[in-house]
Amino acid sequence: MNAPRTSSRERILARIRAAVAGAPEAAEPERHYRERHAPDDPDALLALLHENLADYRAVVHRTGAGGLAGLVARVLAGHGARSVAVPPGLPREWLSGLGEGVELRPDDGSLTPRRLDGTDAVVTGCAVAVAETGTIVLDGGPGQGRRALTLVPDLHVCVVRAPAQVVASVPLALPRLDPARPLTWISGPSATSDIELDRVEGVHGPRRLEVVLVEA
Fold first, then answer.
1. Which band of pLDDT confidence, cut at 50, 70 and 90, is reported for residue 34?
2. Cα(16)–Cα(10) distance, rounded to whole angstroms?
């Protein structure tokens, strides 16, 4: 009776088992993460976020709460946006400065993929912003909506409330986030490069990201 044939994979694994037989169990590696704290000066933290967002080619605006609606209206008008996607839970006052010629498109089930593709812009809030990396995180909560809203329109206007939503580092951001939620980490407009390092924007998301930092 012929012996059963063994595959190359089985032979390799058998050699590995024989080589490590009797070897002591490796200790679990220790992982040490640097603990960072936000600067005592909130203005310095906000300035760092502004700098790093701009470094990623986002356009950054700063305003007080009273100037938010007018600033959002000017940003949208500056890009010629005539239709704006509105995620559930977005504060109405954020869009109260828009003119009559701008169509608001609530995400109430009527925004089909085709209609969303024909929408000029979206305005959202965020869950948290990381100053050291210039990263904005969305978690699908009120005022943020589903991921498609911030991936399909060509312009994303994102409102960040400071200092409440600004942290210094990623380790400080993680406890604020629920890993079970659909997290979107944004560092500048969508961009990629080909083999010759020619940068192309708008392939995987909006070509334009404008961030409004609302200072309390």
1. very low
2. 10
- Distance between CA 39 and CA 9 in Å, rounded? 54
Q: How many helices and strands, by DSSP H and E, does the chain display?
A: 6, 12
Compute the average pLDDT of residues 64-74. Answer: 97
Answer left, alpha or beta for residue 57, where phi above 0 means left and psi between -120 and 50 means alpha. Answer: left
**DSSP strands (E only) in the chain:** 59-64, 83-86, 103-106, 121-124, 128-130, 135-138, 155-162, 166-167, 184-186, 191-193, 199-201, 208-215
Cβ contacts of 80 within 8 Å, gap of 6 or more: 120
Q: What is the set of domains in the chain, with CATH numbers?
A: 39-215 (3.40.50.10420)
CA distance 167 to 36: 10
Residues 88-121 have pLDDT tens digits of 999 999 999 998 899 999 999 999 999 999 999 9
Q: Enter the DSSP assignment of 3.
A: P
Among all chains, which residue has been given the structure tokens 């938010």?
68
CA distance 187 to 173: 15
